[in-house]
Amino acid sequence: MLKRLRVKNFALIEKLDLQFSPEFNIFTGETGAGKSIILGALNLLFGDRASSEIFREGEEELFVEGNFGIPGQDEDLLIRREMYRGGRSYVFINDKQVTLHTLKETTSHLAEIMGQHQHQNMLNPANHVDILDRFGNLEGCADRFKKLFDEWKSLKADIEKLVNTRRELLHRADYLKFQLSEIESAKLGINEEEELIQERKILKNAATLKELSSTIYSILYDDDNSVYERVNQCRDYFNRLKEIDINLPVKHEDVENLAIITEELGKAA
Q1: Which GO terms describe its biological process (predicted)?
Q2: Residue 251 pLDDT > 80, yes or no?
Q3: Which long-range contacts (CB under 8 A, 24 or more apart) does 7-10 make?
Q4: Looking at the predicted structure, is the pLDDT value of residue 258 above 80?
Q5: Domain boundaries in the chain?
Q6: Does 85 or 265 have the greater pLDDT score?
Q7: Which of 138, 185, 193, 243 is the most buried (most CB within 10 A)?
Q8: Contact at 8 Å (CB) between 242 and 252?
């Protein structure tokens, strides 16, 4: 319950100190008498953002302070906002500086300001359960239920995570089993990878191999002045030498083998 409101240099108010009774309090007056200014000061106390227009003309600072009685508490809750032209603003709760966010959280349940045709929280279905809990003094039960419900949601999320992990592991196991079956059905040899790499290399260079083989064949066997022809000439010269000198160090079989090897190389290429 708001017990006291102090305002200084706010809009048209130079200084105001209002004491509220614990009973029903009513402000009356003609339009422009200042009722809405007091509500504006309360809104500022509950966390509304301010602009330079709320300062009393000619003043550089303002403050709004409220004393609130809290049921079950011996001491009042003291809330104060201090503002200065240029943007500086301070919030204090029980003389301790806090953030605007903390102010809004603290004052969210202290009071509800409603105007004509303004949407009321009590008409919001989202607040009906909370209203019933407070009416039946069930806040403690509601807090315990919320705690247990949050724990249940956490455990449910953990179970779903475990189920998803198990599903992924089973899927992975099936995939690995399929890959193993494919590898076994391929019946790969020990050195098959090296052989396949070599075969790929041969196929990739087939044109080069054909060209080189043709060139070697021509040089060794097919040209008019091929190695095979020259070896045969050498063999004839050797035979003539042998008729003259039978003690030549070169054997007849070596010359014959040279001719045979040259022919085989040419045909192999």
Answers
A1: DNA recombination; double-strand break repair; SOS response
A2: no
A3: 7/38, 7/41, 7/62, 7/63, 7/64, 7/65, 8/62, 8/63, 8/64, 9/55, 9/56, 9/59, 9/61, 9/62, 9/63, 10/37, 10/40, 10/41, 10/44, 10/54, 10/55, 10/56, 10/62, 10/64
A4: no
A5: 2-113, 118-187, 204-268
A6: 85
A7: 138
A8: yes
